[in-house]
Amino acid sequence: MKKLSKEPFNLIISGVGGQGNVLMSLLIGRALVNQGYFISVGDTYGASQRGGSVASHVRISEHTCYGSLISIGHADVILSLEPAETLRMLCQFGNPDVVTITNTRPIYPSDVTSGHAIYPKIDELLKLIEKLSATVIVIEATDEAFKLGNPIFANVILIGALIGSGALPLDKRSVEPILKENFPKEFDANMAAFNKGMEFAGH
Amino acid sequence: MASIELDAPGTTQLLLGNEAIARGALEAGIGFAASYPGTPASEIMDTLASIAKGMGIHAEWSVNEKVALEAAAGASFAGIRAIASMKQNGINVACDFLINLTMTGIGKGLILVVADDPGAISSSNEQDSRNICKWMNIPLLEPSNAQEAKDMTKWAFELSEELDTICIIRSVNRIGHTRGNVKLGELPKREQRAYFPNIWNMFDPTLSKFAAGPFPWLHNMLHQKLAKAQQRFESAPFNWYVGPDKAELLIITSGASTSCCTEAVKELKLDHKIGIFKLGTTWPIPENLVEKQLSRSQKVLFVEEVDPFIERSVMELAANLPPDSPRLVFYGKRSGHIPSYGELHPDVVINMIVDLMGITYQARDITYEKKAKELSMIIPGRALNLCPGCPHRATFWAVKNALQLDGRDGFVCGDIGCYALGFAAGGYYQSRTMHAMGSGAGVANGLGNLIQFGFEQPVIALCGDSTFFHATIPALINGVYNKSNFILLILDNNATAMTGFQPHPGTGMTGAGEQAISINMEALCHSLGAHVEVCDPFELENTTAILLKLMAEVGGVKVVIMRRECEMVRAKREKRFPYVVHVDPDICIGEACGCNRVCTRVFQCPGLIWDREAGKSKIDEAVCTGCGLCVEICPEGAIIKKAT
Lengths: 203, 644
Prior knowledge:
The structure holds 2 protein chains of 2 kinds.
Chain A: E1 9-16, H1 21-34, E2 38-43, E3 53-61, E4 77-80, H2 83-93, E5 99-103, H3 110-113, H4 122-131, E6 135-139, H5 141-147, H6 154-165, H7 172-182, H8 187-200
Parallel strand pairs in A: 1-4, 4-5, 5-6
Antiparallel strand pairs in A: 1-3, 2-3
Helix pairs in contact in A: 1-7, 2-4, 5-6, 6-8
Chain B: E1 12-16, H1 17-27, E2 32-35, H2 42-55, E3 58-61, H3 65-77, E4 82-87, H4 88-104, E5 110-116, H5 130-136, E6 140-141, H6 146-163, E7 167-172, H7 173-176, E8 178-183, H8 216-234, E9 240-242, E10 249-254, H9 257-267, E11 274-279, E12 281-283, H10 287-294, E13 299-303, H11 309-319, E14 329-331, H12 346-357, H13 366-376, H14 391-406, E15 411-413, E16 431-433, H15 439-447, E17 459-464, H16 465-481, E18 486-492, H17 521-527, E19 531-535, H18 540-552, E20 557-563, H19 567-574, E21 579-583, H20 598-603, E22 608-611, E23 616-619, E24 639-643
Parallel strand pairs in B: 2-3, 2-4, 4-5, 5-7, 6-7, 10-11, 10-13, 13-14, 15-16, 15-17, 17-18, 18-20, 19-20
Antiparallel strand pairs in B: 1-8, 6-12, 9-11, 21-24, 22-23
C-alpha cells in the first residue's frame, strides 16, 4: 500500500444526475479497497436521475473509515462530469492546492433553457475554474465518448484521466480488473474509454 | 452488489451501509425479509432480493410497509428469523401493527430497520423515527458506519430473541447510502424448519402469545422487557468514549453525527480537551454508563439528527442525579446551538465547537474564500426535472391543457413518486396537494363531495402504479362507496421508478425475480364500480380529449390509467432510442414564433435546449432519449423525428 500524500485524501466526483458519478465512485472505491485502503463514499441520492446537481465524496485513508461528508474547503481532487458543477464544487470544497479534472460539455439547467438564468460561456467558465484550482486538466470527455459510440463513456474517460494524473495511489493494473468485473459484456469499450482518459492525462 | 453473499469470513468488501445491513441479517441467519421501496432504505431489499434464490431465503417487495412488517412477523412467529425494512414514511404506515406486536412479543428474532432522511433529501417530510421507539417501548440501535451497521444488525437478532420483542435499527441517509470497508463474518449453515406453535389459552395470553387484546398486564411485561434491554445496553459493544479522562467539553452523539464530531475535533486539534461519547444503543439509554460519562465534564454538547432525542433522555436522567452532583450545562437543540432540523455536516459541528470553546477557525485561505463566494453567485441553479422521455411529462402536459380548456379552476391532488415533481416546473406546477402515499385520492374524496356547498371545481387525483397498490385502493373504494366525484389518474409506468425500478403487484414479477400474477388494475377498478379508461399519455390530443370529456360528465369516480413504460426501464432493456430527433433550423423561427418558445420555456424537457447564439431551439444529443414527444408540441413543425 502506497503512502497517501494526505490523510485522509479527499476526492469529489461531481456532475448531473444520470451521468454516472455513483458508478465512478464505486469503481474507484473498489479499486482502492483492493489495495488495502479504508474508503468512505458518500453519494447524493434522490436527485440522481432527475437532472439535479450530484456529487460523491470519496475519502481515502490508510487507517480508518472517515465520515461520508467532506468539510468546506477540504477537497484534494475534484473530478467533474459537467463544467458548471466543477465550479460549484470548487466554490464549496476547493482550496489553493486543489487539483481539478473537468469535462467541458455543459448540461443546461431548465432555468437556463427557459431564459431565467444564464450559463457562463464555456471558455469563461474554464478560466474561473483555473482561478480556483492549483492544476486543471480539461477534457472534452463527452465529445470523445461520442466517438466511442455513447456519451455515457465520458465517466470512464474521466476515471482514466484521474488515474493518469497520478493523484491517487492507483494505476491501470489496479483498475483494469474492476472494470472487467463491472462491465463483463462491455469491457473492451470501457477499457478503450479508460485508455483515452489516460492519454489525456499525458500517458 | 452481489458481494454480500460471499462466504469469505475475514475478508474486506466495500459495502453500502444498506448492503452491510443486508449482510448482517444474512450472518444472523435470517430466512425471511420483506420491504416496500423507499429512499434511503431500498437497497437493503434490493440486495437481499438479488441473492434470495441462491441463499434459500424468502425476500419480497410487499404491497406496503404494514404488510411487509406483518409478513416478517408471521415468519418470526413460526420460528424463522426475519427482517423488515422501510423508510421513515413506511414505519408510519406500519405503526398500527407495530404497537400491537410489542404487546404480544415474537417467535424468532425480528428486526425492523427504519431509514430516516434528515434534511428530507428524498422525502416529502423530515421526521425522527426514534420517537416511535420511546412511544412504543421498542429497543433501539443506531449504527454509525457500514461496519457497525452489519455488526449491529447481527447483534440485534440475538437481543430480539433474548428480550422476546421486536428491535429497531434506525439508519439515516448518510449511513445507508455511504459505502465503507466491511469485514465479513461467517454465514451460518443450518437447516431451518418453520412451525407455528398452535396453542390457545384464554386464561394465559403468555402461552398463546401471538394475540394482542384487552390484557393491560402485557403492557407491564413490555416495560420489564425494556428494563432488561437497558441492562444489556450498559455493556453493549456499540457505546464508546474517546478523549481525555476529564474533558472541557463532553460531546454526546450517535449515528451519522458521530463522524461529524470526531472529524470536527480532529480538524480543530482539540482531542486533548474534548471528549466524545458515542451511543449506539439509544433507547432505552444505558443510564449507569451515561451517568459515568457525565462525570467527565460539566459542559455537555448533544449532536444528533433530527430531534433532541438523546438530549431529552439524558436531561431527564440528569434531573435525577444526586443533589450534590456538580451542576451540568447542556448545549444542543434545546439551547439553540444545534439546528432543530435538517442534516448535520462536519462544518456545523466545527462552528459549534468554535463558538463554545471561544476559539477562531478559518476553513480555507481568506482570499480564496472571498473569490469562491463571489464566483458561486454566477453558477445557475439546477432544479429537479422529470427525465427526458418520461411519460409523466406527457401526462402533466395533457392535464395542464385539459384543465385550462375546461376553465372551471380544476386542479390536481398530487401523490408520492417521480410525479411528485407535479408541483415543480417539470410537471408544469399542476399539483396543489401532496402528503402521504395514496393521499391524492384520499384528499380528493373530500374535495369531490362538497357539491352541497357549491363546489364545482374539477378534481384530478393522481398516483403511480406502485402507489395505487400501496395505499390508493382504499381511497378509491371509499370514493365509489360514498359517491364522491373525482378523476383518478394512475400513472402506470410499470415500475416503482423513483426508488430504483422495483417490481410491484402489477408488473408480473416478484422482487426475487420470479414470474408472478400481474394484478389487472383496470379490471380491479372496474369491479369496484368506477368508470375506467386506458390511454397512452404520449397520444397528447387523445389524452387531453379524454380528460376533458370526463371532467364534463357530472358525478362519480372515474379512473384513467395512463399507461406507458418508464423511459429508464425501456432504455435499459432495449438499449436503443425509438427516434433520432432534431430541430430544423430553417423551420424554427425562435423568438419570432408566436408560441412564446413553448418548447423551451414551457415544455421543459432536459433534452430540448435553447441555442442562445443562433436564437433557435436545439436538441442536446447527449441528453435526448429520442422519445419524439416534443414533435407534437411545436406549432411550426420544426422538430423532426426519424425512426431508428
